[in-house]
């Protein structure tokens, strides 16, 4: 009486591994691209939420509100917002948060390979009681691990209106590189 062995032959195993390798090779880049797109979308939404909170508080309370890259401990003098930002009621007008000034919003570092940059020279946004932004328009460039071709801009006019845009090639490329 002869017993048959159950299992895979070496050839079947090699074919199965080749199929799995092809599937992983196709699915992994698609997954990574979708993940980066989701992180970039979350960054744009977070910027919009912060701007809305800052504008609303300034208009409702009649006080100036500062939005800047940094955390509850203070603003950073940088155009790189990727490591988080905060909004606070600037009661004394010095553009620096003190313990008696209300922290309205604090955003933690962005996920994935997302970078967020503001216009050169715009390290702080100051919202006035009329809801407008003091100074010139500000452009935020959002880029991620998918490359400079997928970068977008958020442009905020002085009156608080926000619109989407397309960055220049140089701005998109600069956004891709981490800042010191």
Automatic annotation (TrEMBL):
Q: How does it sit in the membrane?
A: Single-pass membrane protein
What residue ranges are annotated as transmembrane? 6-28
Q: Where is the General secretion pathway GspH domain?
A: 51-160
Q: Which UniProt keywords apply?
A: Cell inner membrane, Cell membrane, Membrane, Methylation, Transmembrane, Transmembrane helix
The lineage's top-level taxon is Bacteria
Q: SUPFAM superfamilies attached here?
A: Pili subunits
Give the GO biological process terms: protein secretion by the type II secretion system
The cross-references to Pfam families, in alphabetical order and at most eight, read: GspH (PF12019), N_methyl (PF07963)
Q: Which InterPro entries match?
A: N_methyl_site (IPR012902), Pilin-like (IPR045584), T2SS_GspH (IPR022346)
Q: What is its main location?
A: membrane
Where is this protein localized, as stated in its record? Answer: Cell inner membrane
This protein's GO cellular component annotations are:
plasma membrane; type II protein secretion system complex
- Please report which protein family the annotation says this sequence is part of: Belongs to the GSP H family.
PANTHER family given in the database record: GENERAL SECRETION PATHWAY PROTEIN G, TYPE II SECRETION SYSTEM PROTEIN H
Q: What is this protein called?
A: Type II secretion system protein H
Q: Which organism is it from?
A: Pseudoxanthomonas helianthi
